[in-house]
Amino acid sequence: TDATATTTTTTTTRTRRKFANANEFTRHVSWLARTGRDARAYEAVKESFEAFAEDARAASMCVSVVLRAGDVDGARAMMRAHRTSCLSGRVSIVTLCAWARAEELGRGEDRDAAARALLREATRAADDDDACDDVRLANAGCEAWIASGKFELAHGRVDKAQKCYKHAMEKYRTRAPASASIAAHAWAGLEARKKDATRARELFALAVEICPTHIANYTSWAAFELSRGKSEEARLLFLRGAEAMQSEDVDGDSKQPQRPQDRDSRRRSSMESALLSAWAALEGQLVLQAARSDEDGDASPEHARALFARACEREPKNIAGWLQWSELEEELARGNSHQGGVVIARRRVSNRRQLDVLHAGLKANPGDMRLEHARAMALKLNGDMEGAKSALLRLSERFSKSSHVWHALGTILQESGDFKGAIDAFERGAWASGKANLACVTAAAAAEFHGGQHGRARQLFVQGESIPRYLSTRRERAAHLRLWALLEKRVGSEEATRRLFIAATNEDRTDAATWLQWGQWEKRVNSINAARKVFSDGVKFGVYNGQYFVYQALATLEAEAGRADAARELFKQGCSAHPRSASLWLQWALFELSREDKEHAMRAIKVIESGVARAPPHMPLLELWLDLERERGNVDAAKAVEARLTRLLSEQR
Question: Strands 338-339 and 342-343: what pairing?
Fold first, then answer.
């Protein structure tokens, strides 16, 4: 015992020498966590926590780091040590809330009861401090009531959650308006989940009224309007939020803002940056939508870029903002090379703007995993496969517990022809984080399947099916089942194949690829009627992942069955729904040519003209048009089409 006490005293003394005070220790741990050095942050906390166990802020930070590392029991032990170390005998409200979170994540049967007891202690302490004028205590008290409301909501007690939010909003409206407004928009979110849009808007408006300078209110309200499909209302709210910021750069003529130093200023800067990046993302989506529909709009890429620049200038640590900006530049760079799911040009995509954005983001956030990963993907898009592979190999060494990194590395290796390396990467990623990752298991199974290792592939598919549902998305589960069905289609039974296709559509009926592959299989092994039913459901439900191919498959099936009018109507519907799918226009034109009546060539030319006007440049479509004009003897029209082809070839070179 004496030896243990001596060791503890020595460690505490050494830590005190390393860090001058608790604030310095907290800043160090926070920096490690922010820069993705989670393992080092965890080690620092385990080594040095005892020296600063009595400090509330240090305790809260340490608990966050330990919870992120998955050490729930360690977090709970730290909170108990903090309570013992408090000289006043009273644990702060902030620390009680962090402790409640640790208890909620624990494994014991009494975890919920323990968490609720701690939150009640926090809210009682908040009400005991009612007469105190300290703004920080008022904010902490309000946030305790909000945390209690979120806890009750998570356990299905909606009425209790509403009471907590209402109490926080009314009690702290004057003393802590910013926190009270957070309670109001938390309540608004609850009403939105209950599908009461009118009440939700009233509460969002009340949140803005309580604290007009709390920028997050505008961002949350705008996000709600976007979820309702009201982009113009969202734009107006973003504009109101920008005006509330009262900054010099509202009109875009700003000086470089200085990096805020104190905690409140950093928090405000972070909220302002979040609003600007959300606004920029909306403007970018409107630009892309206008391009896809060939409609003129008032959104412009330059406006979106300017907003992203302001967002990242105001808060360079806004990783989400850098990534959203990068994604917009990627979509703009792809342009006509990738539209409607069809690769129009075989040349690599020049995405220099995207790489410049990521370079700037990494300069502000050296070593950030998400930005490094995005940069590797951008290098791949730019045709630099070796550079992308090297970047991902370095990332896999630094972030060996990231399933996301291993999945990306496996994909790059597979596309490079290194199937063994790809399978190794996928299998490492499947359990890298300590929890199963279905996307990696699915990718490993698919790679084994394509490599001819059907037995091993089936083992992996079965293993993936046993992964708990909460660890994957519906889309991931549907893809897993669809690829498994393709394996059974080749080496298994019809019964197993059909069962897996049905299960995949039950998981995610919006995945058009499932409907397409299922319908093609039914057509081959069953009947045209069975395939027609599957394709029809795909046209109805499969809005994601290549619906235009389902239209094409169903139209072709009807043509083969001698139902020309039905086929023509389906091609018309498909091209109306997906006007930028050049391959669908081409198949429609070929269908018209196959009718072999007097007007077949003119109908085909009209289809081609419509397709060329609405879809990106597509060489096979232009070549067919040229052949038809030459057959008709229309020299001038043929020359015009030939000039288009020559121009397209020149661009692709």
Answer: antiparallel
Instruction: Give pLDDT, residue 297.
Output: 64
In 526-581, alpha helices (H): 528-541, 547-560, 564-577
Could you say which residues of the chain have pLDDT below 70? 1-17, 34-36, 86-91, 105-109, 129-134, 246-263, 292-297, 335-349, 651-653
Q: Is 544 helix (H, G, I), strand (E, B) or coil?
A: strand
Q: Which two tokens stand for residue 352?
A: 């220099």
Cβ(113)–Cβ(151) under 8 Å?
A: no
Q: Which residues, in sequence order, are CB contacts of 165 under 8 Å at separation 6+?
A: 145, 146, 149, 183, 184, 186, 187, 190
* Coil, helix or strand at residue 88: coil
Report the pLDDT value the prediction gives residue 228, as an integer from 0 to 100. 86
Structure tokens given for 26: 């907290």
Look at residue 99 in the predicted model and tell me its pLDDT.
Answer: 75
Angle separating helix axes 263-293 and 319-334, nearest 10 degrees: 20
In this prediction, residue 69 carries a pLDDT of 77
DSSP for 457-513, written as a single string: HHHHHHHHHTS-GGGS-HHHHHHHHHHHHHHHHHHS-HHHHHHHHHHHHHH-TTBHH
Q: Please give the biggest Cα pair distance in the chain.
A: 104
**Short-list 161, 159, 127, 126, CA closest to 140:** 126
**pLDDT value of position 94:** 75
Using alpha carbons only, how large is the chain's radius of gyration in Å? 30
**Nearest residue to 122 via CA among 99, 97, 103:** 97
User: Where do we find the tokens 């190794």?
Assistant: 424
The rounded distance, in Å, linking the Cα atoms of 256 and 267 is: 18
Distance CA 374, CA 323 (A): 7
Measure the CA–CA gap between 167 and 119, rounded to whole angstroms.
Answer: 14
If you write DSSP's letter for every residue of 284-347 in order, what string do you get? Answer: HHHHHHHHHHT---S--HHHHHHHHHHHHHH-TT-HHHHHHHHHHHHHHHHGGGEETTEE---S
377: nearest Cα among 407, 343, 345, 347: 407
Average confidence score pLDDT of the chain? 85
What is the pLDDT, as a whole number, of residue 252? 43
Phi/psi for 343 (5° steps) reads -80, 110
